[in-house]
Amino acid sequence: MVWDYSKLRGQIKEKFGTQAAFAKAIGISTTSLSLKLNNEREFTQAEINASVDVLGVPYSDVESLFFTQVV
């Protein structure tokens, strides 16, 4: 499946400014984050949890941020 991470990208830009700063905050490399946002790798449960925590969004937003399919 291919996921649409546009809402996640928007939250990252709004809260962190750069993908590099966000990647550091959740404990992964910038390269790893880029691969995940481009659907070449999958986010782990731990990375999703860390993302929600550092972005300060409710867990009810997980579906729209991480599990919206590209149509």
Describe the structure.
The protein is mainly alpha-helical and about 70 residues long. It is built from 5 helices and no strands. Helix 2 crosses helix 3. The protein is globular. The chain starts with 5 loop residues before the first helix and ends in a 5-residue tail after the last helix.
Attribute tags:
71 residues, mainly alpha, 434 Repressor (Amino-terminal Domain), 5 helices, 61% helix
Provide a short characterization of the protein structure.
The chain is mostly helical. The protein has 5 helices and no strands.
**Structural class from helices and strands?**
mainly alpha
N-C termini distance: 10 Å
**Total discrete domains:** 1
Q: What fraction of residues sit in β-strands?
A: under 5%
**Using DSSP, what is the number of strands?**
0
Total DSSP helices: 5
* Cα-atom radius of gyration: 11 Å
CATH superfamily: lambda repressor-like DNA-binding domains
The third-level CATH topology is 434 Repressor (Amino-terminal Domain)
Which spans of ≥5 residues are poorly predicted at pLDDT below 50?
A: none
Average of pLDDT = 98
CATH class: Mainly Alpha
Q: From the 3D coordinates, which CATH architecture would you assign?
A: Orthogonal Bundle
Order of helices and strands: HHHHH
Which bin fits the share of residues in helices?
55-70%
Largest sheet: none
Morphology: globular
